[in-house]
Write a structure and sequence with these properties.
The complex is a heterodimer.
Chain A lengths: L9 H8 L5 H11 L23 H10 L3 H4 L3 H10 L14 H19 L18 H14 L8 H8 L5 H18 L8 H20 L8 H41 L6
Helix pairs in contact in A: 3-5, 6-9, 7-11, 9-10, 10-11
Chain B lengths: L2 H11 L2 H7 L1 H10 L6 H7 L4 E4 L2 E4 H15 L3 H9 L2 H13 L11 E5 L5 H12 L7 E6 L2 H13 L7 E5 L13 E7 L8 H11 E12 L5 H23 L2 H13 L3 H10 L3 E10 L4 E7 L4
Helix pairs in contact in B: 5-12, 6-11, 7-8, 11-12
Classes of the chains: A mainly alpha, B alpha/beta.
Chain lengths: ~270, ~300
C-alpha cells in the first residue's frame, strides 16, 4: 500500500487554508475535523500496538488464570471455572465470557501471536540477531518463525485437538480464520517481507494453509523435540516453492500460447486483432 | 420543559369530548380508578405521585403492581398453555437455551450455587436450573429460590414442584417484590435470573439495583425478556401478529382478552435491547460482551451482567 494523499480534496484544502494560531484553536480544530478525514495510510503493527487479547481486565484476569489449568483439564468449562476461582471470581462468573471455551482458545492464540515478535524479529539489524539467525534466506526465516510459534503449543499439544474442535464449530470459524490470517501476516512481517504486489496475498494465504496443516500434524507427533513436525514443515514449504515456480511456468506458457494464437489470427486478418 | 405549559394550555382549552378522543385508553382506565368526573390527564399532572405505564395506559406507580398482579392471577393456571399457543412452543427453546448458556451447577472442586429466580412463579426456569445442574454438572446441592410478587403464580409453581417430585430442600417459593428483595441478604446469590418478568416491574432501575445488592461479587445477573424485532419487514409481521392475534387467542384459549392485550402492550413498551443493557450498566453491573444476545430475530433477548469485585 502506498500513501496517496489527495491534496485537492475539499476538506484538506480547507485545512491547509486555515492558519493554526493557538494551541486551543488547534485542539478545537482537531476535535472538530479529525474524525471526518480518513486518509489511507501505511499500517505497521509496531506503530499501532494491538490492544490486549481482551478489552476488560476482569475477562483477561479469568482467561490468563485459566490457561495454566489447560494441560490438566483441557480447553473446557472446568479449566475456566478453576481459572475464575484463582482470579477471585465465582464459578458462575465464567458467564462473563460470551464465547465460553472459545474465548480461552482465542486468548491463547492472540497472546502467543503477540509474543512471537518478542522472541524472534528478523527486522532487526543483522548484528543484533543472535548467532545462528544471521544471513538466512526468507524460507528459512519463515520456517524458524513457524516452529517458534508451534513450540508455544508444545505444553498443551495433548489438548490441542480439543481447541481445534472448538475452533471448527460454525459460529467460531470466522474468528478462527481471522486469527490464522493475522498469524500468517505476523510471520511474514517478522521475517522482514516487504512485498507490495499481489504476492502479498498469495504468500499469506499459502502460509496459512501450511501452518494449519503443520499444526494438525503436530498433534500426532511423538518425536523428540517435535523433529518430525519440523521436517513436515520443511517439506510443505519446499512444496510451496516448487508449486510457486510451477505456477509461474504455467503462467508464462499460457501467456506465450495466447499471444501466439492472437498473432496467428492477426495474420489471417481476423477483425479485432 | 418549555413545551409543558403550552400543552397544558392546549389541553385545558380543548373541549373535553375532544380530549377523550385523543387519549381514549387513559380516559377509560382512569374513569374507573379516579372517578368519572375528574379530567384524567389533568389529574395525572396535578397529583404529586409519579405515574408509569401499564401497557399503553398510564397509571400511578402505586397502582401498577396491583394491576399486574391482577393480570397474572387471572392467567396463572393457563399461563404455560397460552405461552405454548402464542409462541408455537418456542418459549421452551428460549428458556432451555437461557439455562444452558448460564450452565448452573457445582463445578469440580467448587461450591454448590445459590440461585435466585425472580418473577419465576410457575417455576419454569427454576426446574430447568435444577435439571441442568443435576444432569450436566452432577450437582444435587445447588438451591433455587423462586420469588414472585404474585402468590397465585407461586402456588402454581409449588403445585408443579410437588407433582414432578423436586426435592423441597433444593427449591423454595417466597412472595417477594423484585424492587426490594427485602428478605434476601446482601452478597448472598451466585446467579440472579428473571425471565419474562422485568417488564412488569414498576421501577426497573430499582429492581436492577436490588439485584446488584443481593449478588455476590462476581455473581451473574441474567434476564430473558421480549425485545425489539429486526429487520423491519419481520417486525411489521410480528406487530400484526401480536396486536391482532394474541389477544384473540387469549380470549379463545384462556377466556381473558384484557390480560393478553396488556401482555402485548407491555412488550411494545419495553426499552430496546441496547437501552436495557445500558440500564444494567447504570445499576453497577458489568455488561457481558455488548450486553445482550438476541434470540429468533430479537423477539426475545438475553441480557447478562456481572457484579464486579470490589
Amino acid at each position: 500500500m502506498t500513501v496517496r494523499t489527495n491534496l485537492s480534496h475539499p476538506s484538506i484544502r480547507w485545512m491547509l487554508s486555515k492558519p493554526i494560531t493557538s494551541a486551543s484553536a488547534a485542539s478545537c480544530w482537531s476535535s472538530l475535523t479529525a474524525p471526518r478525514i480518513n486518509l489511507p495510510r501505511r499500517y505497521h503493527s509496531y506503530q499501532h500496538p494491538a490492544p490486549g487479547p481482551s478489552s476488560t481486565t476482569a475477562k483477561s484476569a479469568i482467561l490468563s488464570a485459566s490457561l495454566p489449568h489447560v494441560p490438566s483439564h483441557g480447553f473446557s468449562d472446568t479449566a475456566l471455572a478453576f481459572g475464575s476461582r484463582d482470579a477471585g471470581y465465582l464459578d458462575i462468573s465464567v458467564n462473563m465470557l460470551p464465547g465460553g471455551v472459545f474465548d480461552l482458545v482465542r486468548y491463547h492464540l492472540v497472546t502467543e501471536r503477540l509474543r512471537l515478535g518478542d522472541k524472534i524479529d528478523f527486522r532487526k539489524p543483522e548484528n543484533e540477531l543472535p548467532e545462528g539467525l544471521r544471513n538466512l534466506d526468507i524460507t528459512t526465516k519463515i520456517q524458524i518463525l513457524c516452529m517458534e510459534r508451534l513450540k508455544a503449543n508444545a505444553h498443551i499439544i495433548h489438548r490441542w485437538q480439543e481447541a481445534l474442535a472448538v475452533m471448527s464449530l460454525t459460529e467460531n470459524i470466522p474468528a478462527s480464520m481471522s486469527e490464522l490470517a493475522k498469524l500468517s501476516d505476523e510471520i511474514w512481517f517478522l521475517a522482514g517481507d516487504e512485498s507490495h504486489d499481489t504476492t502479498w496475498y498469495t504468500k499469506r494465504a499459502t502460509l496459512a494453509v501450511v501452518y494449519a496443516s503443520t499444526e494438525l500434524f503436530m498433534t500426532h507427533d511423538n518425536s523428540k523435540d517435535f523433529e518430525a513436525t519440523q521436517e513436515f514443515l520443511g517439506r510443505r514449504l519446499n512444496d510451496l516453492k516448487t508449486a510457486g515456480s510451477a505456477v509461474s511456468n504455467v503462467a508464462s506458457y499460457l501467456d506465450f500460447t495466447v499471444h501466439a494464437f492472437a498473432n496467428v489470427l492477426r495474420s489471417k486478418n481476423v477483425p479485432f486483432f | 420543559m418549555s413545551a409543558r405549559p403550552l400543552s397544558r394550555g392546549l389541553l385545558s382549552a380543548a373541549p373535553s369530548k375532544h380530549l377523550r378522543s385523543v387519549v381514549p385508553r387513559v380516559a377509560a382506565s382512569h374513569s374507573t380508578l379516579v372517578g368519572p368526573n375528574s379530567s384524567p390527564s389533568k389529574d395525572d399532572r396535578s397529583s404529586s405521585e409519579p405515574v408509569t405505564h401499564f401497557g399503553f395506559q398510564t397509571v400511578k406507580e402505586s397502582l401498577k403492581s396491583t394491576r399486574v398482579a391482577g393480570v397474572f392471577s387471572s392467567v396463572a393456571s393457563s399461563y404455560d398453555t397460552m405461552n405454548d399457543v402464542m409462541s408455537f412452543g418456542i418459549h421452551r427453546l428460549w428458556k432451555d437455551h437461557f439455562v444452558r448458556s448460564l450452565n448452573p451447577g457445582r463445578r469440580p472442586g467448587g461450591q454448590p450455587m445459590s440461585i435466585l429466580d425472580v418473577a419465576g412463579g410457575t417455576g419454569d426456569i427454576a426446574f430447568r436450573m435444577l435439571d441442568h445442574s443435576e444432569k450436566v454438572n452432577g450437582d444435587r446441592e445447588t438451591t433455587v429460590l423462586c420469588t414472585d410478587i404474585n402468590a397465585d403464580m407461586l402456588r402454581e409453581g409449588e403445585k408443579r414442584a410437588i407433582q414432578n417430585g423436586y426435592d423441597s430442600n433444593r427449591i423454595s417459593f417466597r412472595v417477594e417484590n423484585a424492587e426490594t428483595l427485602e428478605s434476601i441478604p446482601d452478597n448472598s446469590v451466585d446467579l440472579y435470573t428473571i425471565s419474562f418478568g422485568i417488564r412488569n416491574v414498576t421501577r426497573i432501575p430499582m429492581a436492577l439495583r436490588a439485584a446488584r445488592r443481593v449478588l455476590k461479587p462476581g455473581g451473574v445477573f441474567a434476564c430473558l425478556e421480549f425485545s425489539k424485532v429486526s429487520p423491519a419487514p419481520l417486525d411489521a409481521i410480528y406487530q400484526q401478529y401480536s396486536f391482532s392475534i394474541i389477544p384473540l387467542m387469549g380470549q379463545l384459549v384462556a377466556g381473558d382478552r384484557d390480560s393478553y392485550q396488556y401482555l402485548v402492550e407491555s412488550i411494545k413498551r419495553f426499552p430496546p435491547q441496547s437501552e436495557f443493557a445500558r440500564m444494567i450498566k447504570d445499576a453497577g453491573l458489568v455488561n457481558v460482551g455488548k450486553g445482550y444476545k438476541e434470540l429468533t430475530f430479537g423477539i426475545a433477548s438475553i441480557w447478562k451482567g456481572v457484579k464486579p469485585l470490589e
